[in-house]
Each structure stands twice: as C-alpha cells, then as structure tokens.
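Private note to self, pasted from the team thread so I don't lose it. Backbone tokens:
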C-alpha cells in the first residue's frame, strides 16, 4: 500500500446541497446503501490502533454512523463502549438491528444536539460524514468530549482521484451536473482532500497538539447493477426529481459504453489529531 499526500488545487465556487439535507438523504434504503458502499481499508483501523490507542475498552463516540460500515470495524478493534450518533431514524434502527453488540449504543440525534459526557472519551471518530456538519462548531464540541491525550479521527472514502484518469466520471459528468454534496468541496478539490483547509480548521480550535494525515489510492470494479446501486446512494442523485431516469441512464452507459465493466478510482483520506495533554 502506498501512502501519499494530496496537494491543494485551484478552487472554484459550486452550488452545494444544504447541510440539513444530509440527515435525511440516506435513510430510504439502509440495506441497499450498506451493500453498495465499499468498506474502509484495514490500514485506517490499524492506524487508530497503533497511533491512537484503539484497543479493548477504548471509550469511543462515532459521528454519523450511518449503516455501521465503520462501526463494525471499530468494535472489532476493541471500541467499548461505543456511542454511535446517527440523526436518521431509519439508519439508526438498521444499526441496532444488524449489530447486536452490547458495547454499542445508538443515539438518534444530530451531533449538534446530542448530550455526551465532556472529557469522557478516548476516541472520537467520523467516517464519510463530517462534511455534513458546521466544521468549526463541530470540532469545538469534539474537543470538549475528548479526554486530554484522547484522539479525534475522521476518514473518507472519496470516489474519484484527481491524479488518475476517470473515464466513467467524464462520460457521466454532464448527466450528473447539478447541486453537489458538501463532500465534493469547492471547485475540483473534494472536502476530504483539501488538506490545507482541514488542518486549518483543526488548528483554529487550539485543542490539538499532534495532527497527521494519510491517504491511500485504490480502485473498485463494478458491473452495471453494482454501478447503479452505488450511485443510488449518492446524495446529489437522491436530491433530484429525475433520480430514476438518471440511474437508468447510468446503467445504460455502464452496459453500452463500458461493456459492463466500470472502474472507479478511490482515495481513502484519514486525519488524526490528539487532544492537548493537560498542563
């Protein structure tokens, strides 16, 4: 596995979906969402173990747990107790039904509203969800919840890589033109890969004394049905009134133009930050 750093790119303004939309965008079909979205690479959780002390009895909160793709991996690595914070009732119920682990509790609330013990956690975590929050306000709350020396980690699986050709993206760009998820960031730089902005936000809290960033590049290969299932989980598609027609056209392009084989480039981007030790 090759780890690399992503350089900052030129930014241009684009229309973004309202942050509130993210709380309802993914709950229509939790099982379908869970089946379609790829898991996070093992190295993410190995980093949490080796650098952030994730082990048995690590008190953890997870923001935007969704269907629990990362939740399961946190539990496997020892997170306990683990409070999964998920504002969408359908996703939260899916979590409860599919992860029968006594270490897990699920809080159905936006992170802004949830009440947790300040200074009560060894680890805070968010997987492909933090872009749906007000970054500065959320990071201040994250810092309050962590013990001195505790760790904050946020990770994204990014669909697309600015450093690699992406024929399917180019072939469907006009079809998908419209309001974008905040995950797409501004211009051509996804939120998760805007390292300068993410590090600056962490620095503005004045709460973290060690900050690190790692990425890895990989790919997934999809048949037409898998392609449609994946794109059906995208917030910018779920926001469209012509959603079904767009998904049908994506399947047609995958079958005809790509002979039933679509390769999507992926980047996993992980940020970790240690809460300042008590003086």
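Design output:
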């Amino acid at each position: 596995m090759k780890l690399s750093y992503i350089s900052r790119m030129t930014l241009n303004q684009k229309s973004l979906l309202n942050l509130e939309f993210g709380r309802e965008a993914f709950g229509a079909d939790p099982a379908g969402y869970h089946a379609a979205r790829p898991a996070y690479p093992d190295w993410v959780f190995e980093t949490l173990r080796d650098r952030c002390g994730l082990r048995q009895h690590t008190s953890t909160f997870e923001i935007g747990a969704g269907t629990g793709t990362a939740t399961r991996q946190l539990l496997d690595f020892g997170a306990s107790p683990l409070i999964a914070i998920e504002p969408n009732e359908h996703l939260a119920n899916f979590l409860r039904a599919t992860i029968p682990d006594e270490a897990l509790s699920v809080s159905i609330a936006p992170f802004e509203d949830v009440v947790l013990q300040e200074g009560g956690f060894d680890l805070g975590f968010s997987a492909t969800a933090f872009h749906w929050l007000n970054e500065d306000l959320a990071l201040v709350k994250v810092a309050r919840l962590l013990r001195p020396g505790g760790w904050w980690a946020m990770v994204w699986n990014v669909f697309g890589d600015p450093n690699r050709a992406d024929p399917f993206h180019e072939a469907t760009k006009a079809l998908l033109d419209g309001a974008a998820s905040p995950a797409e960031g501004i211009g051509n730089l996804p939120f998760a890969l805007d390292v300068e902005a993410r590090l600056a936000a962490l620095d503005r809290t004045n709460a973290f004394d060690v900050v690190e960033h790692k990425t890895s590049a990989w790919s997934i290969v999809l048949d037409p049905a898998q392609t449609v299932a994946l794109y059906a989980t995208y917030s910018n598609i779920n926001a469209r009134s012509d959603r079904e027609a767009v998904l049908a056209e994506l399947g047609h392009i995958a079958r005809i133009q790509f002979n039933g084989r679509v390769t999507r480039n992926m980047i996993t981007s992980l940020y970790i930050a240690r809460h300042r030790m008590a003086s």
